[in-house]
């Protein structure tokens, strides 16, 4: 139920983002989702690709520091309160949500969010007990690449 995410620290200056993106594109990696956060000195590029180990090796070979973390992909109903239900279940169980960002789904009337928890296994357990099932990585990749 967990999905591997690659995180890269990038200098906060023009053109820095294009280098890892171009390296992945030239090696035929499709970026399924990404998030970019910044401070004055640096940015953190978080991304999901199908073959994360090979992408990690490529990026590290090119001098990037790459951290691998687990995220949980959760389908969220595209209606008022869809996200609130998920957050309430996590809050009641006192599961810490560190950050989240969205995936792009083509032609679907629901959202798919990437969640980073301090304890992803516990978060999955809490959500499943509330009838909220995270998307497994095979289904995720199939849906995003179709």
Provide structural commentary.
- The structure is a single chain.
- The chain is 34% helix and 35% strand.
- The two termini are 20 Å apart.
- Strands 1, 2, 3, 4, 5, 6 and 7 form a seven-stranded antiparallel beta sheet that branches.
- It folds into two domains: 2-69, VC0802-like (2-Layer Sandwich), CATH 3.30.2130; 71-136, 2-Layer Sandwich (Alpha-Beta Plaits), CATH 3.30.70.
- By secondary structure, it is an alpha+beta fold.
- It has five helices and seven strands, in the order βαββαβαββαβα.
- The mean pLDDT is 87.
- The protein has helices spanning 18-26, 52-61, 82-92, 120-129, 137-145; strands at residues 2-11, 33-38, 42-48, 66-77, 97-102, 110-117, 134-135.
**How many discrete domains?**
2
- Biggest sheet features: 7 strands, antiparallel
Strand content: 25-35%
Please give the count of helices.
5
Explain briefly what this protein structure is.
With 146 residues, the protein is α+β, with helices and mostly antiparallel strands. The chain has helices spanning 18-26, 52-61, 82-92, 120-129, 137-145, and strands at residues 2-11, 33-38, 42-48, 66-77, 97-102, 110-117, 134-135. The protein folds into 2 domains: 2-69, VC0802-like; 71-136, ACT domain (Alpha-Beta Plaits).
Task: Give the helices and strands, then pairings.
Blueprint: E1 2-11, H1 18-26, E2 33-38, E3 42-48, H2 52-61, E4 66-77, H3 82-92, E5 97-102, E6 110-117, H4 120-129, E7 134-135, H5 137-145
Antiparallel strand pairs: 1-3, 1-4, 2-3, 4-6, 4-7, 5-6
């Amino acid at each position: 139920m967990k999905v591997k995410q690659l995180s890269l620290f990038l200098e906060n200056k023009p053109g820095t983002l294009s280098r890892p993106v171009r390296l992945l594109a030239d090696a035929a990696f499709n970026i399924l989702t990404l998030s970019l956060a910044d401070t004055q000195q640096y940015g953190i590029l978080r991304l999901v690709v199908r073959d994360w180990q090979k992408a990690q090796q490529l990026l590290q070979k090119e001098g990037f520091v790459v951290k691998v973390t687990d995220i949980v992909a959760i389908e969220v109903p595209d209606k008022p309160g869809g996200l609130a239900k998920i957050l309430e279940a996590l809050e009641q169980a006192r599961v810490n949500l560190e950050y989240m960002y969205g995936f792009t789904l083509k032609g679907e009337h629901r959202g798919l969010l990437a969640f980073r928890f301090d304890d992803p296994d516990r978060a999955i357990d809490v959500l499943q007990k509330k009838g909220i099932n995270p998307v497994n990585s095979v289904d995720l990749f199939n849906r995003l690449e179709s």
